[in-house]
Amino acid sequence: MSHIKPSQSSSLDDWLCYLEQLHPANIEMGLERVAQVANNIHLLDTPSKIILIGGTNGKGTTARCLEAMLLAQGYSVGTYASPHLIRYNERVRINGQELADQDHVDAFYQLEQGRGETQLTYFEYGTLGALALFKRYEVDYVLLEVGLGGRYDATNIVTPYASIITTIDLDHKEYLGDTRELVGYDKAGIFRTNTPAIVGDLNIPHTVTDYGLEIEAEMVLSKRDFYFTPLESGLRWQYLDYDLTLSQPAIPAQNVATALTALAHLNLLPAEQKVREVLDSLQVEGRFQKLSTKPLVYTDVAHNPESARYLRTKLLNLKNQGFKINALVAMLADKDKAAVIDELGDAVDSWTCAALNGPRAESAENMRQALSNTQQEEILAFQSVFAALDAMLPEQDDNSALIIFGSFFTVADAIQYWKNRE
Questions:
Q1: Tell me, what CATH number does 266's domain have?
Q2: Exposure string for 247-264, b = 16+ CB within 10 A, e = fewer
Q3: Global pTM?
Q4: What positions does the domain Mur ligase C-terminal occupy (predicted)?
Q5: Does 276 share its domain with 354?
Q6: Geometric angle at alpha carbon 403, from 399 and 409, rounded to 5°
Q7: Based on the domain organization, do 306 and 259 belong to the same domain?
Q8: Mode of pairing for the β-strands spanning 141-145 and 49-54
Q9: Residue 183: which of 311, 57, 338, 334 has the closest Cα?
Q10: Domain check: are 92 and 186 in the same one?
Q11: With 0-12 CB in 10 A as exposed, 13-18 as middle and 19+ as buried, what is 273?
Q12: What is the pLDDT of residues 167-210, one digit of tens each?
């Protein structure tokens, strides 16, 4: 492939292909390079209030909840998320809407003029591009999802108005460490002195609070300062003088509680009726998303043990309604497949697996091996999610529910498959 530099009139696809070739690694830890480019083009000089959102799981749903609550009050909001499901444009939203291709092209062109000889990874380029767009649109609040860990993630070059950690679990162990204490310490790197630091994890590692105390962050902790209680038809959230019983949201109650606490602490929580209206209408693509009613089909991005545990609660609820649970799983090679599958063991009745495309994709045969402990006599393995669905859907009946999960790529394939059917 060519390394010819695109122009401001090039397509977004041309730019994305170019960015994929700029750096030999997908991930390079460290802030010096990305901060240097940001300073070159004055990206960090912005009046927007920036909220950093880190965590193993729940970043996207927490950001979507914050975004909806702020928009409901008339604020302008820029949101940066990754990865995308179908189109790159999903990564940057202004007031809940994706931007045109040319907006991204203009931002990348600006970065290319300002980076000089500094090499940037694809994610770093995307992060700086998002910051450029938020500055251009002069939004009131910026919601930045941290990509990997926290301390050395590209998003951590900003000065946050507040920092949030959603959950802490084992993922990306080759970069963050193989204990929750090590992972937590890395994620706590997004804290700042005398700045709100809201932590939603239900069993916070001491390394998080130790670091917060060391730098004198303004910590607000779950199970110490705020609480949530799952109810049969909703949840109860308590923080300071707030004590609300809310209907069942479409996203995990833990993430709702964390988002509401952050807003309340920042004096940004809407009136109670508005909170209820926003939660009732909240939907996040790819999070236990229903693709079809007949047959009953869901898809979910769960790809690590913690997210699998949450998915398990959803599947057990379906089982309690009398449905047989059939699962189609496709994952990346660097994920803990055995642990994810083990978490779902008692919730799934029948397993099928598939391969994904791309350099990090796990093969169909290796996925079959990962399922060997399920005691299922014969596990069908397909070379793509599309091929698996072609074979599986005719076999689904009114008493079964199909869950397609394992990766953002898996969900993207499932959504695309359904769009092709329509």
A1: 3.40.1190.10
A2: eebbbbbbbbbbbbbbbb
A3: 0.84
A4: 286-408
A5: no
A6: 160
A7: no
A8: parallel
A9: 57
A10: yes
A11: exposed
A12: 988 655 555 657 889 989 999 999 999 999 999 999 999 999 99
